[in-house]
């Protein structure tokens, strides 16, 4: 039995920049840094959220 392989000559669709994980991480780091710089009290109040996520 001969099975014809299906080839797709179209290139893979490129993801948008905000769909790439490392870009999302960089954006989160930048937002967190700006939040801590301009609104340190808000950043300090958010600390319990982070501490709950970390393993003990």
Secondary-structure blueprint:
Layout: H1 21-38, H2 40-45, H3 47-53
Summary, kept brief:
The chain is mostly helical and 56 residues long.
Descriptive account of the structure:
The chain has 56 residues and is mostly helical. It has a domain of 37 residues. It contains three helices and no strands. The model has no long low-confidence stretch (mean pLDDT 80).
The whole-angstrom Rg is 22 Å
- By secondary-structure content and strand pairing, the structural class works out as mainly alpha
Average pLDDT figure:
80
Shape, principal axes of CA atoms:
elongated
Strand content: under 5%
- Low-pLDDT runs of 5+ residues are none
Major pleated sheet = none
Percent helix among the residues? 55-70%
Give the helix tally: 3
Please count the beta strands (DSSP E, at least 2 residues each): 0
